[in-house]
Specification:
- By secondary structure, the chain is mostly helical.
- 58% of the residues lie in helices and 4% in strands.
- The chain contains 16 helices and six strands.
- The strands form three sheets. It has a two-stranded parallel sheet. Strands 3-4 form a two-stranded parallel ribbon. Strands 5-6 form a two-stranded antiparallel sheet.
- A hairpin with a 5-residue loop joins strand 5 and strand 6 (381-383).
- Helix 4 crosses helix 10 (228-254).
- The longest helix is centred in the middle third of the chain and has 29 residues, at 195-223.
- The radius of gyration is 22 Å and the shape is globular.
Length: 404
């Protein structure tokens, strides 16, 4: 990540350009919204049916988990079911992506997901705070989740020396870490939030977590009789798998090199076009197959998701080429890369910034405080400066979007 005033990536754009960019994105959103229909509804219902089938199959197989093949198959099915429920279904339903169907069973106001975080708590901390103030230091609490130092501009504290270990623990128990994070205990410590409110929220959190613990680690294992220990282990493995996968996908969405951070003063008078621009510069995509996109909840299209968080996720792959083309025409980076590369970069940043000072990267490869990196038309990562040069030529060739 790199703190910036967006000079490196978007200083060549005039105010008129930025608002024209916003108008193009508004038009794209309206086009997709008008096209939503039966195919989209069938898609989400089919995903939910598959997820529930996998969940049931996994639970049944784990009843015979004394047999190694049954344990492996049951654990794998349950892991995939939990990932689908968390990513492609729960996260996206809670964003209101399917509210247009007016189906009370798939509506953001009624859905409760299989995660330690309550739906209401998540919608406030994620849908409102994070998506409104994306990557704004001091406003977006998702930058390091109030624990990790992932940007050089974040003040260093002695406990950050342990942050590689803290991050490993966070990955293993990600759902619980996020649930506690949603309660904003640091605000209680700072005197900005009453303890009485936090105590009530912690009580609600415990009631939900208790139900999950009883289901996965008591109820289903007891049903398995002699296979209770192996069934419990299968459930634990599925939960940890889901947590680690979710951690990797989410951290790759905003923390890799090329994803910019911003200062609070940049919010002053921010227009819709400028908000769109911040979402594009502060997000990063993951390259992969359709199956990988499904398993990430289509958060592999993080740029598209942040531009249109309440657009049905299945549409992100459809509009991604047009967003990439838009970035090229306006001379903006489109940051994307394979999961292994993006996640390795994030882990490297967390390790480097565990020490005082430091930068996101020290290899001088256009990352850290230098020029952000984006993806070219072939999906390879390229310097933003090159993207600006190539994009400016396209700007000149496409109706002279840049004035002067």
């Amino acid at each position: 990540m790199s703190t910036t005033t967006t000079a490196a990536a978007s200083a060549h754009l005039t105010d008129v350009d930025v608002e024209r960019l916003g108008a193009e994105l508004d038009a794209l959103r309206a086009e997709v919204t008008a096209d939503l229909g039966d195919d989209d509804a069938r898609y989400i219902r089919r995903v939910i049916a598959v997820q529930r089938g996998l969940d049931t199959s996994g639970r049944v197989l784990l009843q015979f988990s004394l047999l190694p093949p049954a344990w492996l198959a049951g654990t794998a099915a349950l892991s995939v079911a939990k990932i689908l429920e968390n990513m492609e279904i729960g996260h996206n339903v809670l964003h209101g992506q399917w509210d247009w169907m007016n189906d009370p069973e798939i509506h953001s106001s009624t859905w409760e997901w299989d995660s330690a975080s309550s739906a209401e708590g998540w919608k406030h901390s994620h849908n409102y705070v994070h998506h409104t103030y994306t990557n704004v230091l001091g406003k977006d609490r998702d930058i390091g989740y109030s624990t990790l130092r992932v940007d050089p501009e974040q003040p260093w504290k002695p406990y950050h020396l342990l942050q590689p270990l803290i991050n490993a623990g966070l990955a293993l128990g990600f759902e619980y870490g996020i649930a506690i994070y949603d309660i904003e205990l640091e605000e209680v410590a700072a005197g900005r939030k009453p303890w009485s409110v936090a105590r009530t929220e912690l009580g609600g959190l415990w009631r939900k977590v208790r139900g999950q613990l009883l289901k996965d680690y008591v109820g289903y294992p007891l049903l398995a009789g002699l296979a209770a220990p192996t069934t419990l282990l299968g459930n634990l493995t599925a939960n940890v798998t889901r947590n680690v996968w979710t951690h990797a996908v989410i951290f790759c969405g905003h923390f890799p090199a090329g994803a910019e951070t911003f200062t609070e003063d940049q919010l002053d008078g921010e227009t819709r076009g400028q908000w769109y621009l911040r979402q594009m510069l502060g997000s990063a995509n993951l390259d992969g197959s359709p199956l990988m996109h499904l398993m990430t909840g289509n958060l592999s299209h993080q740029i598209e998701h942040h531009l249109f968080p309440d657009m049905p996720s299945r549409r992100y792959a459809q509009i991604a080429p047009r967003i990439r083309d838009l970035c090229e025409r306006y001379g903006l980076p489109y940051t994307s890369g394979p999961l292994y590369r993006q996640y390795a970069g994030v882990l490297g940043t967390i390790a480097r910034l565990a020490l005082p000072g430091g930068s996101a990267r020290e290899d001088g490869a256009g990352e850290g405080r230098g020029a952000p990196r984006g993806a070219g038309a072939d999906g390879q990562v390229v310097d933003a400066a090159d993207a600006v040069d190539q994009g400016q030529r396209r700007v000149d060739e496409h109706a002279g979007l840049r004035a002067g």
